[in-house]
Specification:
Rossmann fold; five-stranded parallel β-sheet; 5 helices; phosphoprotein; CheY-like_superfamily; Two-component response regulator
């Protein structure tokens, strides 16, 4: 089985580091991090990750706008997107699902459960 590739788009360096360390250690996935929606779109197009973890609240271009741009791009529209958000309610989850996002994970997240949450949302196995 090939190693899954995850792109983490979050303007908080601490979140990037925690997600990267956990996903590499727990799931043995390859992880690249970027700090902005603009960089996320560029990296997603070039690197073609298996999934994108995308922060909602970012300066310049928020996660929703970034997602819409990823969806509008034929090179990235098939990449599953999982939102990372501090604000999540049932109505938000429904709206995100209707937009085509795989799921949303609440921040702060449990680092040891993050890989499992991603795998469950995308139907992946962690026994890889």
């Amino acid at each position: 089985m090939t190693t899954k590739r995850i792109l983490v788009v979050d303007n908080e360096e601490y979140i990037q580091e925690v997600a990267k360390i956990c996903l590499e250690t727990v799931a043995r996935w390859e992880v690249i991090t970027v700090s902005s929606g603009k960089d996320g779109i560029i990296k997603a197009e070039a690197w073609q990750p298996d999934a994108i973890l995308l922060d909602v609240m970012m300066p310049d271009m928020d996660g929703i706008t970034t997602f819409e741009k990823l969806q509008a791009n034929p090179a990235t529209k098939e990449i599953p997107v999982i939102l990372l958000t501090a604000k999540i309610q049932a109505s938000d989850r429904r709206r995100y699902a209707q937009m085509g996002m795989a799921t949303a994970i609440a921040k702060p997240f449990n680092p040891l459960e993050l890989a499992g949450q991603i795998a469950t949302a995308l139907g992946w196995s962690l026994d890889g």
